[in-house]
Design brief:
By secondary structure, this protein is of the alpha/beta class. It has ten helices and 15 strands.
């Protein structure tokens, strides 16, 4: 793709990321339930949009470890666990995070981070390389803070890198009322207040006892709230882009859009994220927009979060560190992507090809999906005698072995076909 044919070097880099945004809920990825992403879609239409992209995990901390460093978790020697003690339960250890911010700052860029998810901030030591790190709340505060920070970066006079991360649509899904037109007309969800965390968890615990109609009613309400959050962030992203245009810098700035992971609505028996790497959680979207050099293109080749950093560096003409496990998008055909989820001694791993996927839960559960006909991972076709399953295990088994050697608080049950 055009990412390999860059006649000039962008002066600045604007990275805009969204939390918990399912790939199948952006309109340009085929969603037709509601209008959720007109501004994001217009942005992606002007650049290189990665349409078969996967996160390396299913929750924010490890997803950004891969995206910001271009390396998988084990080779980074940092596998976040998000509680339960053991490896990765605390902040990133050390002051040498090899992130995009550190690399660009070392190359003379002014750098700034605006965030609402503390996995990206100083609490987890993940804001290294940023000269400023600003916490903000909902989407309005994030966009306002990002616009103000952009103004200061432009005034600084150096090339700049600004990373803005929106935490919405992370649960609970509470967009402003103007994004919930028609919500009160939907059938009730058995009286559960879906704006409240405790009520949501009570609904989830009671789910097996609901009738089909009651489940459909609750899902309809949750879906509208979730879509409303995406639409809300979409509007706030446009304000940041408008500010870039007001400075006259669109043609001098590489814009990188990304989502860290998705969210589950009980498709596989659970809710939210941080669980198994099924499509609704680990399918993501990335886009690179730089009008002077990138011709609009939907790239359907397999890509993963580890590919983001080397691709950015390729645009900027900066040599990539040799430790990277990611590749420049389009520089070669990626045959496989991998995912690793490790939380509270519970481990999931997956190997993904351009057309199918093998998932292994260390409790012994195994799944195989033919994504050519089942992109939502709903029909488990696992057969240990299938040559294709055996072939994918040949690719996954070394990753299982490497992670087993890395930790000492979990043991895989019956790995292999």
């Amino acid at each position: 793709p055009a990412v390999q044919e860059v006649p000039g070097v962008p002066v600045n880099v604007l990275m805009i990321t969204m939390d918990t945004t399912r790939r199948d809920r952006l309109n340009s990825n085929g969603y037709s339930g509601r209008i959720t992403s007109p501004n994001i879609d217009a942005l992606l239409a002007g650049g290189l949009a990665l349409r078969n992209h996967y996160s390396c995990s299913t929750w924010t901390y490890p997803s950004f470890v891969c995206m910001l460093t271009g390396r998988d978790q084990v080779s980074m020697d940092w596998v976040p666990s998000n509680g339960g003690g053991g490896v990765g339960a605390t902040a990133y250890i050390g002051d040498d995070l090899p992130s995009i911010a550190r690399i660009l700052n070392d190359n003379g860029f002014a750098t700034g981070l605006v965030w609402a998810n503390n996995f990206l901030g100083p609490d987890r030591n993940m804001d290294q390389g940023h000269e400023t790190s600003e916490a903000a709340g909902g989407a309005v505060n994030i966009s306002d803070t990002a616009v103000a920070r952009m103004d200061l970066l432009v005034a600084d006079g150096r090339p700049w890198f600004l990373h803005t991360h929106f935490n919405d649509p992370h649960g609970m899904y509470n967009p402003p009322d103007e994004y919930l037109v028609g919500y009160d007309d939907l059938p009730p969800c058995l009286g559960f207040d879906l704006t409240d965390r405790a009520a949501f968890e009570q609904m989830a615990a009671s789910w097996p006892s609901f009738t089909d109609d009651d489940q459909a009613a609750c899902l309809a309400r949750l879906s509208m709230r979730y879509d409303g959050c995406i639409r809300w962030v979409d509007d706030r992203i446009q304000l940041i882009l408008d500010n870039l245009d007001a400075h006259g810098l669109r043609d001098q700035t590489l814009i990188v859009f990304g989502t860290d992971h998705g969210d589950e609505f009980n498709e596989h028996g659970d809710w939210e994220h941080g669980k198994g790497p099924f499509a609704e959680i680990n399918a993501s979207t990335i886009g690179f927009v730089y009008p002077p050099a990138i011709s609009p293109e939907d790239f359907e080749g397999l890509t993963t979060h580890e590919d983001v950093l080397p691709t950015i560096l390729n645009f900027l003409g900066i040599a990539a560190p040799p430790e990277l496990t990611g590749i420049v998008v389009g520089s070669e055909v990626r045959r496989f992507a991998h995912a690793l989820v490790y939380k509270k001694q519970d481990t999931w791993q997956a190997v993904i090809s351009p057309s199918d996927k093998l998932i292994y839960h260390w409790e012994g559960d195994k799944y195989y999906f033919d994504n050519a006909v089942d992109p939502a991972d709903l029909s488990n076709l696992y057969d240990p005698t299938s040559p294709r399953v055996v072939e994918l295990w040949d690719e996954l088994q070394p990753k299982v072995d490497a992670f087993e050697a890395y930790i000492d608080d979990a043991v895989p049950i019956s790995p292999g076909p």
